[in-house]
Amino acid sequence: MPDTAIAHADLKKKTALSVLWSVIRVAWSTIATFVIFVILARILGPGDFGTFALASLLVEIGRVLAYAGLGDAVTRQLELDEELADTAFWATIAFSAIVAGLVFVFAPYYGDLVRDPAVANILRWLAPLLPISSLAVIHNARLARDFGHKSLAGQAIAASLLSGITAVACAFMGWGVWALVAQTAVNAIVTVLLGWFSYPWMPKFRFNVPMFRSVFLFSVSLVVTQLMWMLLARVQDIFISRWYGPVEVGRYRIAWRLIELIGQAVLAPIGSVSLITLSRLQNDRVAFRNAYNKIVGAAALGAIPLLLGFGALSTDMIAMLFGDKWGNAGDIATVLVLMAVPFVMNFFASSALSAVNKAESVLSVAALQLVTTLILTWLLVPYGVVAVAAGYTIRAWLTMPYQQYVLARFAGIDAKSTLKAVALPFCGSVLMAVCVWFAHPVIVEHIHNRWLALGVSIGLGAVIYLAFLPVFGRSAIRPYIALAMSLNPLRKRAQA
């Protein structure tokens, strides 16, 4: 077997094993987060979640600026220079301290902007967590670069469990929104401690200015892009808060949070290794394109049916899980899941362009999407929060063709092959969602136990989708089945 083929096969196995550990990590994190989220949502009110969401928005902006894309820059290095790692570590610490100071100072002004004075006090407690969290950024970047996703899985499990228990305990004690602050603090501290334990690397006291300059020039466009992607998902909170207050922000955010949990469960495990895998294939465009389409196809197989299935049942599901105080959150979720296809495809575009050193090209995509979101939100916010969600969904579909054009031009990934990769799960998911949408009221009418009726509807959707795949797309799913079977240790032993 040629050396190139052997290298590709080895990379394929490492990628698959890393995805497997990421699945374990995210599965636990998703289940634990969901359970904790349900408990907190039943104890706390929409206003608490809305206020915390508004505060965390500014902190997340600060986090993107503070980390400056240096972790990603370390991850994508084919041959990592230790002096570069040291430089990235100290730069991350310095940037985080500066940004934390700015967040602390400008907290009251931001509170005035969103018309929620309670935000300022929360920000002044969240700001110090930025430099604390930055202590593990380069450690975990190096761990991911070495395909150390087993250790990352252990970190995530421990951090989510300890922080979740802390939040629930604080909520029961009547802390209100401060329970969410405590959860964030514990999560940050545990992640740092385990990050250093998992990758026992001690950075040296050195800083190479030329190296920093070269990495930073790469990172600038990446940081701006990350900032735009983050604002793309969160800037609507500011409009909603100014028009309707933090309670409506909380309802909008809980709908988004459930969609994010679905994305975390399916997309995050694959996304966590996509940049590393694609970076290793950057000099082989055919292998690069094929790997990208397989990544997107695998993500679509799991994410699109979950999103559209959730949308078909979201009104009843949210009311049953969280109570009637969450109002129209179900309607918001139903509208938002209609962007399932661009939601999946957006997730991997930045990784693909970064892997071929064209991170700056995705900047135009992010800018177009952000500007379109701002315009549509500004036009539709007077008509209610559901209208704001509709504007966000319309934006996703309107801007998707331009994103595919950029991928084709700079990464050699043609839109036709990518759309072909997502066509099967999309068609099956639409059929499933439509059937569940019409069948659920009939099921509820005949089964008076709401939980049992919901379970029957979910089971019906699963049967329809799983029956659709082998009937209409056996050849499309065969590579994924073969890859999954190759990871079976019993099968490997038998072959040996």
Topology:
Elements: H1 3-43, H2 46-67, H3 70-75, H4 82-113, H5 118-126, H6 129-134, H7 137-145, H8 149-172, H9 178-198, H10 209-244, H11 246-280, H12 285-322, H13 329-336, H14 340-355, H15 361-380, H16 385-411, H17 415-446, H18 450-486, H19 489-495
Order of helices and strands: HHHHHHHHHHHHHHHHHHH
Low-confidence spans: 483-496
What is the count of β-strands? Answer: 0
Proportion in helices: over 70%
Give the biggest sheet: none
The total of helices stands at 19
Distance between the terminal alpha carbons, to the nearest Å? 19 Å
- The coarse overall form would be globular
Structural class: mainly alpha
Mean pLDDT: 80
Radius of gyration over all CA atoms, rounded: 23 Å
Beta-strand percent range:
under 5%
In words, what does this structure look like?
The protein has 496 residues and is an all-alpha fold. The protein contains 19 helices and no strands. It is globular, with a radius of gyration of 23 Å. The model is unreliable at 483-496 (pLDDT under 50). 86% of the residues lie in helices and 0% in strands.
